[in-house]
Amino acid sequence: MAVSTNSDFVDFIIPLRERMNFYDKTRSPTDQEKNDAADPARSLPQGFIDSMIIREAVYVQEQGVPLENELDDEDALAFHWVAYASVPDKVRSDPSSPEMSPQGGRKDSGRRISTSTKMPIGTIRATPVPYPQQHPHPNGKYETAVHKNNEAYVRIGRLSVVKEFRKAGIAKLLVDTALGFISAHPYETFAYYDQAATSQAGSGAQSVDFRGLVLVHSQTGVQKVWRKYGFETDESMGEWDEEGILHVGMWKRLDLSNASKKNKIWLPGGPS
């Protein structure tokens, strides 16, 4: 993929697909023996491990989500972004500090201690949904008041920022970065969903109808946060429970007028 949203303080991870087999969801992200022992060219990148460190801190430790439920099937197909902050050398060199490494690992954890001055502080993911997919509202329909006619969309989520940085604009940085990538590169967003995708229709290929529609599963208590980013609640989706927390569906349509010029997206076959 010839696009990137990497910067000194935001890491961009393309869909990891089969590499996710190296991640043990029953263990902490700082305790991934299978991944540590894997061929570096095939193992999960540190950026994804950093993303899971943030998610463990926010969703598992703060909100009580079971550790084994935090990683799901979308993670292998999603784009991920991770925001970092600078960490002074004196913090990293203090063995008593839990932030002695960007991984938050202990000396006895067996993991290599990075010499980087970056500490992961926030993350977000975006998952392309090119085919009809039932929504989690009570009727489980393919369509809602907003989403109709099998239109492709992108679902963003797992937005999380560590407690100490929640008033530093990190959430806005991550949301703007993810939405900016999708609006500028809709073709790449969906083409990478399947590595065999081509720009021409092959046998059994389907054209993806993506017109900028983005969905977020918002906790009911933070809808006002997503409204700041232009999302509106779809009342037809009702409310549903995810890990003991009520959620609603919220949508936003992005402006694709400045997108890359490849205006047809073809994916082999259809939903299995």
UniProtKB/TrEMBL annotation:
Residues 24-44, 90-117 are annotated as: Disordered. Residues 24-39 have a biased composition (Basic and acidic residues). SUPFAM superfamilies: Acyl-CoA N-acyltransferases (Nat). It comes from the Eukaryota. Gene3D superfamilies: 3.40.630.30. This is Glucosamine-phosphate N-acetyltransferase. It comes from Saxophila tyrrhenica.
